[in-house]
Amino acid sequence: MLVTFAGRRVLVVEDDFLVSLTTVDFLESVGCEVVGPAARLAAAFELAQSESLDAAVLDINIAGDMVWPVAEVLRRRGVPFIFLSAHPRLSEIPIPFAAVPRLEKPLEQDRLLRQLSAIWDVHIPISGRQIF
Fold first, then answer.
1. What DSSP string describes 1-56?
2. Could you tell me if 69 and 94 are in contact, meaning their C-beta atoms sit under 8 angstroms apart?
3. What class is the 9-120 domain?
4. Is the distance from CB of 66 to CB of 85 less than 8 angstroms?
5. CA torsion, points 128, 1, 86, 58, in degrees to nearest 10?
6. What is the pLDDT of residue 124?
7. Distance between CA atoms of 69 and 115, rounded to whole angstroms?
8. What is the pLDDT of residues 42-88, one digit of tens each?
């Protein structure tokens, strides 16, 4: 793959081990430096507050806790983020986050690349692979 986001720091918040592992591996394969991954809300909140970040990929439901406090910290800091959800019909997204991009699981690499490229204004080729 020729796409590279070399040096971009991306926070990954995901409580499913396999999804987390494949997301991290994929982000690293395109040059990102992964922060985390965080599998619990408290850890994610701490990383969102303390780390230098270029973007974040946030599972909406983290071990039964909604990720909204982390999203709020990122919003206040001006860090762009993308929501992930295994529940595509989830309609309980708070109004301040209604316009945030949301990707469904299983997560497709191309969709994640498109979202990250839009965040960072980078042109990328698309191929059609899935990650979890």
1. -----TT-EEEEE-S-HHHHHHHHHHHHHTT-EEEEEE-SHHHHHHHHHHS--SEE
2. no
3. alpha beta
4. no
5. -140
6. 52
7. 22
8. 999 999 999 999 999 999 999 999 999 999 999 999 999 999 988 76
- Crossing angle (nearest 10°) for helices 41-50 and 68-77: 0
Cα–Cα distance measured from residue 61 to residue 53, given in angstroms and rounded to the nearest whole number: 21
Give the pairing type, strands 102-104 and 61-62.
unpaired
Q: Which two tokens stand for residue 29?
A: 């394969």
Amino acid at 53: L
DSSP 3-state assignment of 125? coil
Q: Tell me the residue type at 128.
A: G
Cα–Cα distance, 4 to 92 (Å, whole number): 34
**Contact present, 132 and 107 (Cβ < 8 Å):** yes
